[in-house]
Write a structure and sequence with these properties.
about 230 residues, Hypothetical protein af1432, two-stranded antiparallel sheet, 11 helices, about 5% strand
Length: about 230
């Protein structure tokens, strides 16, 4: 498989990865695009230091990281009215690979791993225990929020972090994420209950409340059998 180096990180250079980058660039704001590219590069930098990830499907990992946030692209072809943004993103990525000319390279197992990597990227306690492609994708995305100190075992060096941040700056990242999460709570609140997105609604969106929709509330209201 052909490779190239971006911000000091060696990554796959294949038609499907190039097409994924183009799709993300066409549909994302600068801050959001930089986030997904950083997530890709950070994930690869981490994987280089973690032996369990050595044999992962690197092309799949790249596509998952690059396309993982298509589901939060507001008022676009990827966002549904009734699904959480993680599922929308997973569906969009699967549809993307199914449009590629070499579809035979993406069998059902490979497409399912891609779907899982995106759908579970906000659930580290689950994703970290799944296949290497799913775990590595989650590690890279998490790293963009927590930095080197938040990645166990020193798997992400300060030098790798600084090189990636230099080439793909973080300007507008924090405010962009907050605005996006609040937008989901305003525009399709039913898809945010029981997810971390609801925390933004409870704290920052007038009229929004997850109370009554939480798992805690469901269990509290469960009727015991006679």
């Amino acid at each position: 498989m052909s490779t190239k180096t971006i911000a000091g990180v060696t990554v796959p250079d294949t038609p499907v990865v190039t097409a994924a980058q183009a799709l993300a660039r066409d549909h994302m704001d600068d801050w959001s695009y930089n986030h997904v590219i950083r997530s890709w590069l950070l994930g690869f930098a981490i994987a280089e230091q973690m032996p369990p990830f050595a044999e992962r499907d690197q092309e799949l990992h790249a596509v998952a990281a690059i396309l993982h946030d298509l589901g939060w692209v507001e008022k676009d072809m990827f966002m549904s009215s009734d699904k959480c943004f993680e599922v929308d993103g997973a569906n969009a990525a699967k549809a993307f690979v199914e449009r590629q000319p070499n579809l035979a390279e993406w069998d059902q197992h490979r497409k399912q791993l891609l779907w899982d990597a995106i759908a579970l990227h906000t659930h580290p306690p689950v994703a970290m225990h799944k296949q290497p492609e799913v775990s590595a994708t989650c590690f890279g995305i998490l790293a963009d929020f927590v930095g080197p100190a938040g990645i166990p075992g020193g798997a992400l060096s300060d030098s790798a972090w600084k090189s990636i941040i230099h080439d793909f700056p973080r300007q507008g990242f924090k405010s962009g994420v907050i605005e996006t999460m609040c937008g989901l709570c305003k525009n399709k609140p039913e898809t945010t209950y029981k997810t971390f997105v609801s925390e933004f609604g409870d704290e920052m969106v007038d009229g929004y409340t997850s109370k009554g929709q939480r798992v805690f509330d469901i269990i509290q209201n469960t009727v015991d059998a006679d």
